[in-house]
Amino acid sequence: MSDDGIRSDWATKDFYKELGVAKSATQDEIKKAYRKLARANHPDSHPDDTVKHDRFKAVAEAYDVIGDPDKRKKYDQARELFGRGGFPAGGGFGGAGGFGGGVNVEDLLRDRAGGGGGGFGDLFGDLFGGGRGRARAPRATRGADLETTATIGFTEALDGATVSLRVSSDGACATCHGTGGKPGTQPHVCPTCDGSGFVTASVGGAFSMNETCPTCGGRQLVYDDPCPTCLGSGLGRSTRTIQAKIPAGVKDGQRIRLRGKGVPGESGGPAGDLYVTVKVTGHRVFGRKGEHLTVDVPVSFAELALGAEIKIPTLGGAPVTLKVPAGTPNGRTFRVRGKGAAKADGSRGDLLATVEVQVPSSLEADAKEALEAYAAATTDTRLRSGLFAGEAGGERSDRRQDAN
Fold first, then answer.
1. Residue 9 vs residues 2, 90, 102, 298: alpha-carbon distances, Å
2. Tell me: the pLDDT tens digits for 325-380?
3. Which residues, listed in sequence order, are joined to residue 311 by a DSSP beta bridge?
4. In angstroms, rounded to a whole number, what is the distance separating the alpha carbons of residues 249 and 345?
5. What's the pTM value of the predicted model, to 2 decimals?
6. Which of 90, 128, 201, 254 has most Cβ atoms within 10 angstroms of its Cβ?
7. What does the buried/exposed string (b/e) look like for 181-201 if buried means 16 or more CB atoms within 10 Å of the residue's CB?
8. CA–CA separation, 171 vs 261, rounded Å?
9. Which domains does the chain have, with CATH numbers?
10. Interaxial angle between packed helices 119-128 and 105-112, expressed in degrees from 0 to 180 and rounded to the nearest 10
11. What are phi and psi for residue 137, nearest 5 degrees?
């Protein structure tokens, strides 16, 4: 069967019916229908069922066309032209570019295109990859994503900051501007993929998939004389400086996505994204717990036992007075509202102040004498009595008891 005969057979198939979707279905609906049918008929799951094998191939063929917005548009146009001409669903060519009824398909397609050149071979060549060596515009390709790390200060993480990042990546070669060819030379259609940019590879059984053409690297065009700088790769190493805005409240180790700051796209394609992992340096006084700040407050035993009013710092503001009640246990945390980190809604978290008794490494004579007097006056043998409760038979038994 000729190339044109194969294409007419494809164009007269109802791919929407094959996937069980309406012609008005969205791309997401088409994708869901394809995945469901592909799982149900996959050759790996039904190795001996030839009916499901054929069904899987038909479903894959349908999705390859209407699952691609550009191919779907050309397919719909072709179907409409066949329908307008009153051709039977299985009609074949009756001659050079015509059907048995004498209607010339080339003329129909040329009229539809506004009288321009190309006709049937161009429309179906674009749709099914049979361009017969005709040069095409290179396919737009999205640029790759990049990753980097930014180190900022504790206060910058709370308030937000703008940092300068030097990013190195593979970009278009400065000599050939990404074409891969020697300046001044002309390209021609890649002979390996016939200008489609991809080749079909079998992955077992009736299942196959498209891969980037190894000869042209997906560019669809090749040069006989490669660029002397990049040796035909079209790539060059570039370094640029990016101003990145770090949002307020960012956490240590958080990953931020900067859209469009990655590698520039090829042939008009969009740039990739830049992912920044933020490292936050510690603070001499303050710590962080989510939206709250933390601070350890050194206190004496007397301040906890007798009660006291002590001043504690706040980050970027005036000190506040903390009232410590008499008899406060060591390690208690007090909450100072509104003195923490900024929240997304503009409010602030709290400052969590934990009191920690500081034991002096040495005592003056008067202090030592007073402390010894205190110790004598407060001797209490019951202070650690709870530690020895198990000696009186009160220990907990973890041994398993089996019923008789």
1. 11, 7, 18, 85
2. 999 999 999 999 999 887 878 788 999 999 999 998 888 999 999 988 988 888 77
3. 321
4. 11
5. 0.48
6. 128
7. bbeeeebebbeebbbbbbbee
8. 13
9. 3-128 (1.10.287.110), 136-180+235-282 (2.60.260.20), 284-396 (2.60.260.20)
10. 80
11. -70, 135
